[in-house]
Amino acid sequence: MERSSKFLSLAGWAGIMAGLYALMGAYTAYRVFDFNPDKLVYESSENLASNLSKVILLAVVILVLALGTAIFLSHKKATKRGENLWNALVRRLLVHMAVPLVVGGLLVLILIDKGLIGLMAPLTLLFYGLSLYNASQFTYEEVKSLGLIQVGLGLFSAYYVEYGVVCWALGFGVLHIIYGIYMHYRYER
Q1: Distance (Å, rounded) from C-alpha 164 to C-alpha 161?
Q2: CB count in 10 Å sphere of residue 144
Q3: Are 15 and 176 in contact (CB under 8 A)?
Q4: Which of 16, 58, 100, 177 has a C-alpha 20 to 30 A away from that of 27?
Q5: Alpha-carbon distance 68 to 95, whole Å?
């Protein structure tokens, strides 16, 4: 019964890889592009705009890598189990995840346009956490806990903006690695 009501093909290795991509991205943004949004509002400068464009492109690359890896590994796991990856349950899961993610993404773009760079990391954590919490009804119960921790990190980093990049690396990097290892050993071994 659980197979028909829950999406169980999410691979633990997908979480581990997403976490590694995020850590590499946070390191690159911080060290290579000198991206450290330690205050809320930034005056427009050519250097900030150039680096911000690179950071946004880097974020898109990380997102594509993480999603591509998750789809590939989940497809592989579903095939191994004799299941179809693309079904009504997966479509419902994606719709429930998409609403907070799209709203959060649009809000982040609006705030970037207004120069509120310091809220990028907190809001991506917050809305991602809300999307995980929202989607947890369609997959493993542990996704709900991961979502709540992401929300907590997002709120913390919204208050302490100077720790935004560190919290982002913890949330998208370290937590995904821990979650992926836990899920692998709990459900896939």
Answers
A1: 5
A2: 16
A3: yes
A4: 100
A5: 18
Q: Let me know: does 127 contact 110? Beta carbons within 8 Å.
A: no
**Which residues does 26 contact at the CB level (< 8 Å), separation at least 6?**
165, 168, 169, 172, 173
Q: What is the pLDDT of residues 128-178, one digit of tens each?
A: 999 999 988 888 888 999 999 999 999 999 999 989 999 999 999 999 999
CA distance 83 to 51: 44
pTM of the predicted structure, to 2 decimals? 0.86
Runs of H (alpha helix) within 30-174:
46-80, 88-113, 120-135, 142-159, 164-168
Closest by Cα among 108, 104, 129 to 119: 108
Report the sign of the C-alpha dihedral through residues 26, 49, 127, 13, in that order: negative
Q: Is the pLDDT of residue 2 over 50?
A: no
Q: Cα(143)–Cα(98) distance, rounded to whole angstroms?
A: 15
Inter-residue contact 58 to 31 (CB < 8 Å): no
Closest C-alpha among 68, 73, 74, 60 to residue 25: 60
> 70-83 burial, b for 16+ CB within 10 Å, e for fewer?
beebbbebbeeeeb
